Amino acid sequence: MAAAKTFRVLPGFNITLGFTLAYLSLIVLIPLSAVFLKTTELGLDQFWNVVSAPRVVATYKLSFGLSLLAAAINTVFGLMLAWALVRYSFPGKRLVDALVDLPFALPTAVAGIALTALYAKNGWIGQYLDPLGIQVAFKPLGILVALVFIGLPFVVRTVQPILEDLDTELEEAATSLGARRWQIFRHVILPILLPALLTGFALAFARAVGEYGSVIFIAGNIPMVSEITPLMIITKLEQYDYAGATAIATVMLMLSFTLLLVINGLQAWTSKRTGRDR
Amino acid sequence: MAGASAFHLGGDHAHRFESRAATRETPLVKWLILGLSLTFFVIFLLMPLIAVFVEAFRKGWETYITALVEPDALSAIRLTLLAAVISVPLNLVFGVCAAWAIAKFEFRGKQFLITLIDLPFSVSPVIAGLVFVLLFGAQGWFGSWLSDKDIRIIFAVPGIVLATVFVTFPFIARELIPLMQAQGREEEEAAVVLGARGLQTFWYVTLPNIKWGLMYGVILCNARAMGEFGAVSVVSGHIRGQTNTLPLHVEILYNEYQFAAAFAAASVLAVLALVTLVIKTWVENRAAQSHKDANRDDAS
Q: Is B213 at the interface with chain A, CB within 8 A?
């Protein structure tokens, strides 16, 4: 029986895989390939001119720099929040735990106008910062606030399950061997959390780089000062400069694909380290 | 990239850590961590949420209601619902099919396929809108063909639906694939050996096992579908009463300095987000409960 080797008990392989591939191609792969094909309409020189124009380069610096910074802030505070949620009891904990996912559930435009209202000169937070000479809304600092908002759950939700799975024995053993609390954190807990922390950082960064809705309201969108890269694509589109918009999109897509590979690698590392799926 | 949103069976672990001297911090450190993290939580998550409702009611109930029942707002709500009603079921069918093929069978390139399914998560929403403009816009690949046939996709409802389907594409598949992989295929194989047909097997054996994960994916998918802004904004053209979804309606009102009306519309979306979080928490609790029950059954 030559067929025995490929015999499957369960039905439906061909139809489900066939549908999966067809739908994936139709909705994702073919549309995305349009970006790359459209870019080839530009010569290499033209492409380079578009993506290295000073105004565009300024958006890269802003988008990438602030995204990195926001992801770093989220890594620190996300770890603290995850630690508090896993290890301490406090009133309202279930509410806090549920609301951590708010940035996943709240539409970005809503987040954008809410943050702008808070940090405007007469806003709840802005009115206290303004006398100190700190302006947040309509400045690059406002973009940072929005990016911190949307990235927070990524770090908390990747670190939290790993923290929950930690055996208390590990720390007890370290304590009985004479380690101080800080040493235990630094040399026992942190190495276990490291892959998850990096994954959370990368996820928050990837989300922040492409973010549009929550940023444009608070950014002020001044060329060379507070313009993010996704906005640059919109600006080009509004000027009917499709090739230019596509060229910048290509640069962003390359970065996204690279990040996706890095994140997959990190997640594989996490599960190898901790024996968890994902 | 849904890695962070994949649901886990939580439960309160604090007691385990607080009851042992070795896993406790000194009170000073504990209060410092709690204080810093909760301050951060209040400033970055709680205050924006409260601000939406306070701003929405700033001019009183009447303005609030008026803002929500005006024709443009109602048509925006209708379009938002339409986009969700089309994109969620489509991505649900896709998610189930993809998870069935990936979890129940072995084939080459499986890992690569999973990565490809994740793609829309890592693409900027603006680019998600751009790709459909490149395909169906006036200067796009199919642009002239479509205009000959007098079919409008970009700056019309089909474009909005397409962009929504794209950005919500991975949500359900990403929940189901790891769940079904973890469950293996013994139960389904037993059912088939006992004479069940394919769909019977899925309906009576697989579905009860994955229902919580499925629901979780559907809720998150729906929240994103109704709240998507960037991708929809690129393909919509912002035609009032025709191609405005609720998030776009918020933007237009806000840019016209009609702040109370903008926040009123935003508060509808914020309520939607809160409902999403409540259902999500409920699903997690139910899933944890049934997980516990199953373990107890195994033990007895």
A: no
User: What is the Cβ-side half-sphere exposure of residue A52, based on CA atoms within 13 angstroms?
Assistant: 6
- What is the amino acid identity at position B81? L
Residue A159: closest CA among chain B residues belongs to which residue? B4
CB distance B4–A200 less than 8 Å? Answer: yes
Token match 């792969």: residue? A29
Q: Report the alpha-carbon distance of residue B20 to residue B55 in Å, rounded.
A: 46
C-alpha A204/C-alpha A200 separation (Å) is 6
Closest approach of chain A CAs to the CA of B26, in angstroms? 9
> Which residue reads 């990190």 in tokens?
A266
In a domain, A222, yes or no: yes
Residues of B in contact with A80 (CB under 8 A): 33, 36-37, 40
Asked whether residue A118 is assigned to any structural domain, the reply reads: yes
**In this predicted structure, what is the pLDDT of residue A264?**
82
Q: Any idea what DSSP says for residue A10?
A: S
Q: Quick check: is A34 in a domain? A: no
Residue B220, H or E segment: helix B207-227
- Name which residue leads in pLDDT, B14 or A205: A205
Residue of A nearest to B181 (CA): A277
In a domain, A125, yes or no: yes
Where residue A243 sits, what CATH number does that domain have?
Answer: 1.10.3720.10
Residues 51-80 of B with CB under 8 A from A: 51-52, 55
Q: Which residues of A touch B272 (CB under 8 A)?
A: 105
Q: Does any CB of chain A come closer than 8 Å to the CB of residue B86? A: no
3-state SS, residue A19: helix
Question: How far is the alpha carbon of A231 from chain B, nearest alpha carbon, in Å?
Answer: 8
Range of the domain at A188: 42-273
Average pLDDT, chain A: 90
Q: Which of residues 153-212 of A touch B (CB under 8 A)?
A: 153-155, 157-158, 160-161, 164, 168, 171-172, 174-176, 181, 199-200, 203, 206-207, 209-212
A271 touches chain B (CB under 8 A): no
CB A129 within 8 A of CB A54: no
Q: Write the pLDDT tens digit of every residue in A135-165.
A: 998 999 999 999 999 999 999 999 999 999 8
Number of domains in chain A: 1
CA distance A264 to A273: 14
- Tokens (6 digits) for B233: 């904004």
